[in-house]
Specification:
Length: 421
């Protein structure tokens, strides 16, 4: 008897076989006696937006570099073959796994007869009236469950629940012929030969780890000094668009590195351009004669993203204060954004919305229209802005916007833009 493969998947939605996909999968091997043997998990790039991110907590930045299901299908098949497929609400997980394989042209024996559902068996193996949820079943028998809706966390808790069931079955307290029949069918089921690819797993937090490396450090340190003012302005214009929401997404960081490489901008030049950009922001802040605490916090925050230390940022602010007293042209002359094609959202601009947002999309569309903007259903080159649930969204709209160089911002940044309009 080979044992069990306890599975949990996190998905973009509720409907396998259509547009919804698996975004995280975990497998825990459990021996016939209930001992945990090994664990495996990875995020998956679904090639679309991530759906209810507030439920599964996966950031788009984390899956940008994750493997696709096709790339891990062979490794996953090896983990599942010959074992009983176990999950809490197994119908949901099994249908998603089977649908992903079917989309690749493989008919896998992940069917009700080879599966065991810890939710369904709770009524027979747990004392009293057990709740249906995994958290409820675990609490019922004293199994800790912290960080639910992460695939490996849920799979591990389900494995512990399975071990509890096996101990109850060992007492002979329940007729379990159908339980052992699932073993027989799983062990003899024929799995197709799914190619195994040499790809690594991707875990939660990968995007944050990548963002922790300043993108400035990824710009080539020494490049031929062939770039001139026009290239500098192009770089500053992209920087301005990337920082509209005061957040540099992984996609934006990669785009800035690629642009610097294409324009021949080395790290030393980029560092100076970043200081110029801060100088421009500081000059704008002092135009009304007052630099507020919020403006200082904003400038220091931008400086941190650009690899400029806090002391240098404060120095830039003091320089702007001094220059502001020189009269018209004093502050403007020091602006690193002078001549830069700065982004401005204006009445009549087309705005596109994408992703599962915290507020209904219809509400955002009404507010945009009330501000004089024009909500648009699709991304074209005439669109001014894309508002996404996650700036690193993998939706088709976000990918198209990135290809066109259209800024992508989150809800908070868009709300601030509406306020300014």
């Amino acid at each position: 008897m080979a044992g069990y493969a306890v599975v949990d998947v996190e998905t973009t939605g509720l409907f396998p076989g259509g547009t919804d996909r698996i975004v995280e999968v975990a497998v825990v091997h459990v021996s016939p006696g209930g001992e945990r043997e090994r664990s495996w998990t990875t995020l998956l790039n679904p090639g679309r937006d991530l759906g209810p991110q507030h439920v599964h907590g996966i950031a788009a930045a984390d899956v940008l570099g994750a493997p696709t299901f096709a790339q891990v299908a062979g490794a996953l098949a090896e983990l599942l073959a010959g074992r009983v497929f176990v999950a809490h609400n197994a119908s949901f997980d099994a249908r998603f796994v089977a649908a992903e394989y079917a989309a690749l042209g493989f008919d896998v024996p992940v069917v009700p007869e080879t599966c065991l559902c810890t939710m369904r068996w709770s009524g027979r193996l747990l004392p009293g009236v057990a709740p249906r949820s995994l958290a409820g079943c675990c609490a019922h028998v004293g199994i800790p469950l912290e960080g639910a809706h992460a695939a490996l966390v849920d799979a591990t808790a389900t494995a512990e629940l399975l071990a509890h069931y096996l101990r109850v079955l060992g007492t002979g307290a329940c007729d379990a012929d159908d339980w052992w029949r699932a073993h027989e069918l799983a062990e003899t089921a024929c799995w197709p030969a799914v190619p195994v690819h040499d790809v690594g797993c991707c875990l939660r937090g990968a995007g944050a780890a990548q963002a922790a490396v300043p993108f400035l450090e990824r710009i080539v340190e020494r490049l031929p000094g062939t770039c001139g003012p026009a290239e500098h302005q192009e770089y500053l214009a992209m920087l301005d668009r990337a920082l509209l929401d005061r957040f540099l997404s992984v996609r934006e960081r990669e785009a800035l590195v690629a642009l610097a490489d294409r324009l021949g901008i080395g790290r030393t030049t980029a560092r100076q351009l970043h200081r110029d950009y801060l100088t421009g922001l500081a000059a704008e802040a002092v135009r009304d004669g007052v630099v507020t605490e919020d403006e200082v916090v904003d400038l220091v925050g931008v400086a941190e993203m650009l690899g400029v230390d806090k002391g240098e940022a404060l120095e830039v602010i003091e320089e702007a204060r001094r220059d502001a007293g020189l009269g018209e042209g004093g502050a403007g002359a020091c602006s690193g954004l002078a001549g830069c094609d700065r982004f401005r959202l204006r009445p009549g601009d087309l705005v596109v919305f994408t992703g599962d947002m915290s507020r209904p999309r219809e509400e955002w569309m009404r507010r945009a229209a009330a501000a004089g903007l024009v909500p648009h259903p699709s991304v074209t080159k005439s669109v001014a802005l894309v508002v996404a649930a996650d700036p690193d969204s993998l939706s088709g709209k976000a990918r198209k916007a990135a290809a066109y160089g259209i800024p992508i911002v989150g809800e908070g940044a868009f709300e601030e833009m509406l306020r300014r309009l």
